[in-house]
């Protein structure tokens, strides 16, 4: 088990990695799923043998409120149907923490429940916010769970220039679920999970 890393260099590196993903040209992405709420693309990940996913959609709300619902905190468990538990294990300065959370089984439990321990960091980006994370090898793995691993992931949330009460939410997710899983099942689950994330978030934000 690794000790908790120094938060400042890790936060800087994570932010820079996400900004690099955000500048990847459109031609490198392939559409994986499209719904009324979001479009999901994917490209081979440079971190592991799976895919880096990009999801994007417009949310009718202000940036701060949206990010408060996404980042570790009291709102997330209320609306995210995939997340079953969440504990903040360590808190650092400047919107940094280490959290442990578990996810529900997916695809009729072909994908069993997973546990993750992530370093999370929220910072300003342009006129909006970026909340990002990466998994750590930290803490004991609980029985009945496979420990998954999130390579650098994050959500950019910026107000639309002409409609500041609406925000463009763009996510980059690359999750290594681990365990014995057919890759096709993982790919199906990831695209659907990301599209559902947007529809669930929109419902949660409705006044």
Automatic annotation (TrEMBL):
InterPro entries linked: StarD4, START-like_dom_sf, START_lipid-bd_dom
An individual GO BP term: cholesterol import
Listed GO MF terms: cholesterol binding; cholesterol transfer activity
Pfam family, one: START
Gene Ontology cellular component list: cytosol; endoplasmic reticulum
Domain START, residue spans: 10-207
Source organism, top-level taxon: Eukaryota
Name of the molecule in the record: STAR4 protein
């Amino acid at each position: 088990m690794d000790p908790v890393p120094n938060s400042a260099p890790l936060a800087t590196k994570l932010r820079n990695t996400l900004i690099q993903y955000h500048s990847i040209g459109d031609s490198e992405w392939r559409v994986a799923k499209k719904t009324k709420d979001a479009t999901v693309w994917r490209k081979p990940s440079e971190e592991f043998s799976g895919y880096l996913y990009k999801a994007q959609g417009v949310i009718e709300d202000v940036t701060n409120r949206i990010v408060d619902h996404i980042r570790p905190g009291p709102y997330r468990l209320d609306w995210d149907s995939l997340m079953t538990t969440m504990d903040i294990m360590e808190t650092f300065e400047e919107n940094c923490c280490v959290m442990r959370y578990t996810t529900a089984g997916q695809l009729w439990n072909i994908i069993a429940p997973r546990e993750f321990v992530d370093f999370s960091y929220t910072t300003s980006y342009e006129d909006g916010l970026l909340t990002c994370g990466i998994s750590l090898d930290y803490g004991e793995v609980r029985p009945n769970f496979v420990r998954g691993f999130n390579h650098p992931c994050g959500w950019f949330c910026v107000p639309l220039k002409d409609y500041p009460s609406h925000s463009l939410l763009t996510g980059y997710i690359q999750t290594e679920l681990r365990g014995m899983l057919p890759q096709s099942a993982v790919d199906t689950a990831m695209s659907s999970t990301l599209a559902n994330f947007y529809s669930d978030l929109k419902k949660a934000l409705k006044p």
